[in-house]
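Dear H.,

Thanks for agreeing to be a second pair of eyes. The structure we're designing against is below in token form, covering all 173 positions.
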């Protein structure tokens, strides 16, 4: 499987948008204890870049949910990594790579609610609203994209392409 040679979202566009998101998040979370809950593995690059542009003190936790095989979403979601820290009284911002059908995020939101944080919001680099099956909305969205499979900047096809600094459409032909 190949990627297109021209990026869908360039490195420059991603970094510029991250500056805007970081400014907005820093304003919203001033004087709050912010916990970034980074969804592995796809949100790794996004969270690393975003966190370094925030001006509020932040702690970083990781969460992992498995639901995806190849290019199709399945409804089975298993949380395999979850923060050991006590999240009660904290302000949790889940950092996702992409919001697609909504199943993964819906399930993650449920798990986090059980941990009784003071607030729970979602920040996603990409949003693919065309395929949403469960109504999930993100408070912070980097880019809204059409229904195409994308790779790069943390996003993979069978573990490939994560290291690319830009987002590319996968050629499924
Ligand atoms: P759902 O459908 O549960 O899926 O919202 C979210 C997860 O599915 C993966 N996903 C993608 N991964 N390119 C990818 O590399 C894509 O275009 C894509 N669409 C969905 C991803 O793991 C995400 O967290
Ligand atoms: Mg994947």
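And this is the sequence the design step returned. I haven't edited it by hand at all.
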């Amino acid at each position: 499987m190949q990627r297109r040679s021209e990026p869908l979202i360039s490195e420059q566009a991603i970094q510029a948008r991250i500056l805007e998101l970081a400014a907005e998040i820093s304003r919203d979370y001033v004087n709050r204890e912010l916990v970034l809950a980074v969804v592995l593995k796809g949100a790794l690059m996004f969270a690393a870049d975003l966190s370094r542009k925030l001006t509020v003190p932040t702690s970083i936790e990781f969460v992992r949910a498995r639901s995806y095989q190849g290019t199709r979403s399945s409804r089975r979601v298993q949380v395999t990594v979850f923060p050991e820290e006590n999240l009660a009284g904290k302000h949790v911002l889940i950092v996702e790579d992409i919001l697609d059908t909504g199943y993964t995020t819906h399930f993650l939101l449920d798990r986090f609610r059980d941990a009784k944080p003071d607030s729970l919001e979602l920040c996603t680099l990409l949003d693919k609203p065309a395929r949403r099956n469960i109504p999930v909305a993100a408070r912070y969205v980097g880019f809204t994209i059409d229904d195409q499979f994308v790779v790069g900047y943390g996003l993979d096809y069978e573990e490939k392409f994560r290291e690319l600094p830009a987002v590319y459409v996968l050629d499924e032909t």
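Two observations from my side: The chain has a mean pLDDT of 94. The pocket of magnesium ion (ligand 2) is lined by residues 42, 68, 156 (CB under 6 Å).

Warmly,
E.
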